[in-house]
């Protein structure tokens, strides 16, 4: 039987009068790749921040590795990797300095951190900027650096929040392969993105968050049962009850044209 790695029970979160999460309960087993999707502002990043202990004001329970995150211990955090949607990176450091620093924070010996940083940057096609300052990196290069920094310590559980923004098509293929291989080795991946075709292809299970609750939870094939040739994009549109894109688009353009 596979271990339960992530569990949330009746998670609720408000920002002022606004209810963002209204009873989110989910369970994720080891080796699963969860595609966590939902409209803008649905609360995906908020869920991830609560699970990571970055956001503390909420009600409900979260267990990671079977361990209640509210009990104050931090040891389990060493087993987690995270790519945030918006990341603060020390721009003045070089890739080498940044990754070695992060690796050491996670307890890696400095030689090992340095070796892994260099090798992973080379393999991800950014080896030539190893000694360049991060401020000079392109968007895709920064994103690759963040992905590498989340993986340096070989974590068991990964939270990826829009990790492939800015990656070119070839790099996305490499990233998908990395995800699949990590999951095959029993790592658990909680992946939030709007890039539906990638979510559809790599997720073993898709969880759709809508209006504060889970509106769908299952493998793509299961969610797609009614519409065999459907795409995840179509399922998303159906389940979120959205059909006004044409009308909204044309109203938008007519306002743009007002002078
Ligand atoms: N610090 C904050 N203060 C006030 N409201 C916030 C804060 N953080 C998030 N929110 C609100 O909570 C809601 C959920 O935000 P969240 O970033 O979790 O959504 P998301 O599903 O990740 O959206 P997106 O797909 O656009 O990234 C939004 O309405 C947002 O405005």
Helix content: 25-40%
Runs in which pLDDT lies below 50 for 5 or more consecutive residues are none
Which small-molecule species are bound to the chains here?
Answer: adenosine-5'-triphosphate
Taking the alpha carbons of the first and last residues, their distance comes to: 65 Å
| Structure summary, number of beta strands | 10
| Strand arrangement, major sheet | 6-7-8-3-9-10
The outline comes out as globular
- Tally the helices: what do you get? 9
Strand content: 15-25%
Which structural class matches the secondary elements? Answer: alpha/beta
**What is the helix/strand order?**
EEEHEEEHHHEHEHEEHHH
Main β sheet profile:
6 strands, mixed
Q: What is the radius of gyration computed over CA atoms, rounded to a whole number of angstroms?
A: 20 Å
Mean pLDDT: 92
Tell me what the structure shows.
By secondary structure, the chain is α/β, with parallel strands linked by helices. It contains nine helices and ten strands. It has helices at 44-51, 95-105, 110-123, 139-151, 169-184, 196-202, 220-223, 232-239, 245-257; strands at residues 4-15, 18-29, 33-37, 59-64, 67-68, 80-83, 157-161, 188-192, 205-210, 213-218. It has a six-stranded mixed beta sheet with strand order 6-7-8-3-9-10, sandwiched between helices. A four-stranded antiparallel beta sheet has the order 2-1-4-5, covered by helices on one side. Strand 1 (4-15) and strand 2 (18-29) form a beta hairpin. Helix 2 crosses helix 3 (110-123). It is globular, with a radius of gyration of 20 Å. The chain starts with a strand and ends with a helix. The structure holds adenosine-5'-triphosphate.
């Amino acid at each position: 039987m596979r271990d339960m790695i992530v569990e949330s029970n009746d998670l609720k979160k408000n920002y002022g009068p606004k209810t963002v999460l209204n009873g989110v309960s989910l369970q994720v087993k080891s080796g699963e790749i969860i595609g966590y999707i939902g409209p803008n502002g649905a609360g995906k990043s908020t869920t991830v921040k609560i699970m990571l202990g970055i956001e503390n004001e909420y009600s409900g329970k979260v267990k990671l590795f079977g361990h209640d995150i509210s009990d104050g211990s931090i040891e389990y955090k060493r087993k987690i990797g995270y790519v945030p949607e918006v990341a603060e990176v020390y721009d003045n450091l070089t890739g080498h300095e940044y990754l070695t620093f992060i690796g050491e924070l996670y307890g890696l010996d400095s030689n090992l951190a340095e070796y892994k940083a260099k090798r992973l940057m080379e393999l991800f096609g950014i080896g030539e900027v190893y000694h360049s300052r991060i401020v000079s990196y392109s968007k895709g290069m920064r994103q690759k650096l963040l992905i590498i920094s989340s993986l340096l310590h070989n974590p068991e559980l990964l939270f990826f929040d829009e990790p492939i923004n800015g990656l070119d098509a070839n790099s996305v293929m490499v990233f998908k392969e990395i995800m699949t291989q990590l999951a095959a080795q029993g790592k658990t991946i909680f992946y939030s993105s709007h890039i539906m075709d990638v979510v559809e292809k790599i997720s073993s299970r898709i969880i759709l968050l809508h209006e504060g609750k889970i509106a769908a939870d299952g493998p793509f094939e299961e969610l797609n049962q009614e519409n065999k040739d459907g795409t995840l994009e179509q399922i998303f549109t159906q389940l979120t009850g959205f059909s006004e894109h044409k009308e909204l688009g044309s109203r938008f353009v007519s306002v743009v044209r007002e002078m």
